[in-house]
């Protein structure tokens, strides 16, 4: 293969950005289509109890988010940012295809999830890093671009989280049996095929983007090593998912290692880089707290929708349609699509007038809004009839939660892009995802405070179990808001020092 040259920019940043957004959209289509069903699949199809299903999925989510720490380094130093992103998308296609195989064998499921771990680890940090490179040096554009990029995640996830539960129900009802689960997982794989086809068609728009290895011929020896390492990681992930003690130990060790690396890099960095790295560390720790709340969407909130939410959606007393319990997760993505353009416009306008809030202030505001969302879920019992609460509780709860998510998680990548030196950006993108992965697992641990015994089916009895947890989560989000406000002065000082050296 001939070396890929990275010519001077001849393509507008907007066109390059659209190519990156579209592959992200299809990748998230696959991931969230799978996420919408995975806990239900384990509980309803494989017979797992709530506690095991929550922890298995949370451990898988943790591994999926930890893997980019290695994938970012591979993109920076080994294969190239662009090549690694495309390779990751190919591996994800295989992972979802494996989940489409109609078997009840739990080891097969865990191995398929292991392949997804590898694919996500290679794709996620590198595609985000390409967005960073596309808008290098323009902070207000970076905030706006990553907000729209985050919206692309939710365009893909909206369609898949609405589609896969419907496909599963339709196939099962039409043909009998349980084949619908696997057909739905197959649709996730097809989404990645479409995404890769789109990249092939539009590859000229990102020709100028990449890291130094992208400029050299592909080293097939290094590619073989990466693929061999991926096989090992996939197998190890399957073992970790089977044995929860291993999962717990792995997640905690990963947290300690990444924190240690962060501290080492801060100590060894140049004085001009140190303040930005410290600010990134503080904001990353805040993000860890946020994703504990985020993980409830696919665990406690998902099971709450199954057992304690009226699936009838009515407006002014008129029945419109019935939800599938899994489809409530799409509310998160729908709200984010509605709110993202508004926030992106506000950020750009405020940046031009010099009145934009700092990322740290946006984090504090985000936690306060998340608190409102969980308090709405917490009052669900006040609107319940026979243990079933209104669909509107889910709609408005997800609305406030989603606004908080945009203010915290939606700017997490922008925070790395703004504060971290370019030579560390791939690794730091990965480190950010490691923090996310740790909190995904912790979120599963928290969700288990609302685990319902398998023989308990009365909604009147299960409702207070969930609302008690949601009220506690609301109080936790209030505490996070106060903590974020407390560190604001420090972050303002660090940001000022960082900007003076930029």
UniProtKB/TrEMBL annotation:
Q: Which Pfam families match?
A: PTR2 (PF00854)
Lineage, opening ranks: Bacteria, Pseudomonadati, Pseudomonadota, Betaproteobacteria, Burkholderiales
Q: Which keywords does this Swiss-Prot/TrEMBL entry list?
A: Cell membrane, Membrane, Peptide transport, Protein transport, Transmembrane, Transmembrane helix, Transport
From the record, give the transmembrane residue ranges.
Answer: 21-43, 55-75, 84-101, 107-123, 144-167, 179-202, 223-243, 249-266, 278-306, 326-347, 359-380, 400-420, 432-450, 470-491
Q: How does it sit in the membrane?
A: Multi-pass membrane protein
Q: Principal localization?
A: membrane
Hydrolase among the record's keywords?
A: no
UniProt-listed CDD domains = MFS_DtpA_like
- Localization, UniProt: Cell membrane
Gene3D superfamilies recorded for this chain?
MFS general substrate transporter like domains
Task: Report if keyword Cell membrane is assigned.
Answer: yes
Which PANTHER family does the record associate with it? PROTON-DEPENDENT OLIGOPEPTIDE FAMILY TRANSPORT PROTEIN, RESISTANCE PROTEIN MDTM, PUTATIVE-RELATED-RELATED
The protein, known as: Oligopeptide:H+ symporter
What SUPFAM superfamilies does the record point to? MFS general substrate transporter (SSF103473)
Q: Which InterPro entries match?
A: Dipep/tripep_permease, MFS_trans_sf, MFS_Transporters, POT_fam
């Amino acid at each position: 293969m001939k070396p890929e040259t990275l010519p001077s920019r001849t393509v507008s940043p907007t066109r390059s950005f659209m190519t990156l957004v579209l592959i992200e959209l299809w990748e998230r289509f696959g991931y969230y289509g799978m996420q919408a069903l995975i806990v239900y699949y384990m509980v309803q199809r494989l017979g797992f109890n709530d506690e095991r299903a929550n922890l298995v999925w949370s451990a898988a989510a943790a591994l999926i988010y930890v893997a980019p720490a290695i994938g970012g380094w591979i993109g920076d130093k080994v294969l190239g940012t662009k090549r690694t992103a495309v390779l990751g998308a190919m591996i994800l296609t295989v992972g979802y295809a494996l989940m489409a195989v109609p078997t009840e064998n739990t080891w097969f499921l865990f191995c398929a999830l292991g392949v997804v771990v590898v694919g996500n680890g290679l794709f996620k940090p590198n595609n985000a890093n390409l967005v960073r490179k596309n808008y290098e040096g323009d902070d207000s554009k970076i905030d706006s671009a990553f907000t729209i990029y985050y919206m692309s995640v939710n365009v893909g996830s909206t369609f898949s989280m609405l589609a896969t539960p419907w496909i599963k129900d339709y196939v099962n009802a039409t043909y009998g049996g349980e084949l619908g689960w696997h057909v739905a997982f197959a649709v996730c794989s097809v989404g990645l095929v479409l995404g890769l086809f789109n990249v092939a068609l539009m590859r000229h728009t990102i020709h100028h983007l990449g890291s130094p290895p992208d400029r050299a011929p592909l080293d097939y020896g290094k590619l073989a090593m990466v693929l061999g390492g991926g096989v090992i990681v996939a197998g190890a992930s399957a073992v970790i998912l089977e044995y929860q003690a291993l999962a717990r130990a792995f997640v905690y060790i990963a947290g300690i290692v990444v924190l240690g690396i962060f501290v080492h890099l801060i100590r060894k960095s140049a004085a001009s880089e140190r303040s930005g790295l410290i600010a990134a560390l503080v904001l990353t720790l805040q993000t860890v707290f946020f994703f504990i709340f985020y993980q409830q969407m696919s665990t406690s909130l998902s099971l709450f929708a199954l057992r304690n939410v009226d699936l009838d959606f009515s407006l002014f007393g008129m029945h419109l349609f019935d939800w599938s319990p899994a489809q409530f997760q799409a509310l998160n993505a729908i709200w984010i699509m509605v709110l993202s353009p508004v926030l992106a416009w506000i950020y750009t306008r405020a940046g031009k007038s010099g009145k934009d809030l700092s990322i740290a202030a946006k984090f504090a505001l985000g936690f306060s809004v998340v608190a409102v969302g969980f308090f709405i879920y917490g009052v669900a019992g006040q609107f319940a009839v026979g243990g079933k609460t209104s669909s509107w509780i889910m709609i408005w709860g997800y609305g406030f939660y989603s606004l908080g998510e945009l203010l915290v998680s939606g700017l997490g990548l922008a925070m790395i892009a703004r504060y971290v030196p370019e030579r560390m950006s791939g690794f730091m993108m990965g480190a950010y995802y490691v923090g996310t992965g740790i909190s995904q697992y912790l979120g599963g641990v928290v969700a288990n405070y609302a685990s319902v015994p398998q023989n308990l089916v009365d909604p009147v009895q299960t409702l207070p179990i969930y609302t008690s947890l949601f009220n506690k989560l609301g109080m936790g989000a209030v505490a996070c808001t106060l903590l974020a406000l407390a560190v604001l002065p420090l972050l303002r000082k660090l940001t000022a020092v960082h900007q003076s050296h930029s």
